[in-house]
Amino acid sequence: MDPIIHIENIHKHFGKIHALRGVGLDVHKGEAVVIIGPSGSGKSTLLRCINRLEEYEAGRIVVDGIPLDSAQNINAVRREVGMVFQSFNLFAHLTVMENLTLAQRIVRKRSKDESEKVALDLLEKVGIPDKAQAYPIQISGGQQQRVAIARALAMNPKVMLFDEPTSALDPEMIKEVLDVMLALAKEGMTMVVISHEMGFARAAANRMILLDEGMIIEESTPDKFLTSNNERIRIFLSKVLHM
Amino acid sequence: MDEQPKLKPSGSKLAYIPGAEIVGRIDPWWGLVILVVGLTVILVTVKADPFWDITKFVWDGVLVTALITISSFALTLVVGLIGGLGRLARNPFLHGIATLYVEIVRGIPLLVQLIWWYFAFPVVIQQIGEWLHISVIANYVANPILTAIMAITVCYGAYMSEIYRAGIQSIPKGQIEAARSLGMSHFQSMRHIILPQAVRVVLPPVGNEFIALLKDSCLVSVVAVADLTRRGRLYMAVHFNPIEVWTMVALLYLVMTLFAARGVAWIEKKSHFER
């Protein structure tokens, strides 16, 4: 079966910095892949290349059979790929409900009633149906991030990308977000997650990847990964686990 | 632990002043409006000659000033949006045009621009008309009020472009990234996500521009537009009572700007994010 995300030999520069040096990766339907790596290793950049928030100079990315090469295709891919950001990025001038329904209506062309029904079901699923009429500023960080996940899910994406979804959260709110993500992984959602939450990785990931200096250093199952003898993995894990 | 000093309202120990609570409930800025309007009304009624006489004479000018201010401000909002988006355009041509416009217009005093549009521009048009042998164009005569509105719009549009640009740039990049990652087009993201937020950010400076424009509109009096200032000068030329005329003109401007400022504050309050 063809992978749902196919990444081939991606190169990306930021000025003189060679951020991605020939990264290749395949993600199959239903897989959860957790990417870890030190800051500046290129993991966010790689994730953002998948829905072309970041452009790349060389290489090829195909998502669900659509190559990321024209403006039309990029929009088509973005409709199929949900993205969750470190800083939530909820639309500040809209209520939670409007955050969830806007793109459904203007991109998916759903009716108001239909989009609101989808939104309420999802808010139920992420555990905050009572906040539908709140504005983002009125709810906690953990709640905002759950709304952001629901907002992405409302578009019925085939793939979900998570860019350090819990690193801007207070410790007591991390679990409520990870629980939602774990449930999503158990349902078989295809996910690519940048996270240093090793408990989550062990419970949810099919594969773990260590990225450093723009290259994939190691790629294996969480069990093998977390007990690896590879020097760089051990050094990195020791830093992460002592955070 | 030491007892914290009690934060009692300092007025609580003052003697009771009858009616004080009513005064306290009035927004101090509305108080100023009432004061100025009251003073104007008192002058006009108690000393009708010359104040009521002046007011009647310059009233046409008040209407012209209001007309010029409101129409050029409305046009400025449109020009500013186009200019601001142009300044942010990735297309080097659009960006270049918008930047050139802003830089040139910002560098020339409004008075000089008004004079140019009124005295030089028509001659340019006439000469083009003669050259093309089209008599309608060759006999072009500038309409003072339309020319004034155009000149002010061109000038304030440049300032407004910069305000819009700053407002749009102040919206965090994550907002547009979130919109685009949901599949919205660039236009949809601008229309539904960026501009509604930017408008709230730019309201205070845009309100300032409105009041500044209202005051600067008096410059049109030099190009034969019978606005409030020019009407005041005409009255002065006949009756020669500078203290009364210019006090009255100043008061009328002040009444207009104070009401405008209250209006701006009201709109700002209305459009704030719900919290």
Model description:
The complex is a heterodimer of chains A (243) and B (275). Chain A has helices spanning 43-50, 71-80, 96-106, 112-125, 141-153, 171-186, 198-204, 222-226, 231-241; strands at residues 5-14, 17-27, 32-36, 58-63, 66-67, 81-84, 159-163, 190-194, 207-212, 215-220. In chain A, strand 9 and strand 10 form a beta hairpin. The longest helix of chain A has 16 residues, at 171-186. Chain A is globular, with a radius of gyration of 18 Å. Chain A is 39% helix and 25% strand. In chain A, helix 3 (96-106) packs parallel to helix 5 (141-153) and helix 5 (141-153) packs parallel to helix 6 (171-186). Chain A has 243 residues and is an alpha/beta fold. In chain A, the strands form 2 sheets. A 6-stranded mixed β-sheet of chain A has the order 6-7-8-3-9-10, with helices on both faces. A 4-stranded antiparallel β-sheet of chain A has the order 2-1-4-5, covered by helices on one side. Chain B contains 11 helices and no strands. With 275 residues, chain B is mainly alpha-helical. Chain B has a domain at 66-221: MetI-like (MetI-like fold, Orthogonal Bundle), CATH 1.10.3720.10. The two termini of chain B are 36 Å apart. Residues 1-12 of chain B have low confidence and may be disordered. Classes of the chains: A alpha/beta (243), B mainly alpha (275). The interface between A and B is medium-sized, with 27 and 21 residues.
How do the strands and helices of this protein lay out in sequence?
The complex is a heterodimer of chains A (243) and B (275).
Chain A: E1 5-14, E2 17-27, E3 32-36, H1 43-50, E4 58-63, E5 66-67, H2 71-80, E6 81-84, H3 96-106, H4 112-125, H5 141-153, E7 159-163, H6 171-186, E8 190-194, H7 198-204, E9 207-212, E10 215-220, H8 222-226, H9 231-241
Helix pairs in contact in A: 3-4, 3-5, 4-5, 5-6
Chain B: H1 20-25, H2 28-46, H3 48-88, H4 92-106, H5 110-132, H6 135-138, H7 144-169, H8 173-181, H9 186-216, H10 228-239, H11 242-270
Helix pairs in contact in B: 2-3, 2-11, 3-4, 3-7, 3-10, 3-11, 4-7, 5-7, 7-9, 8-9, 9-11, 10-11
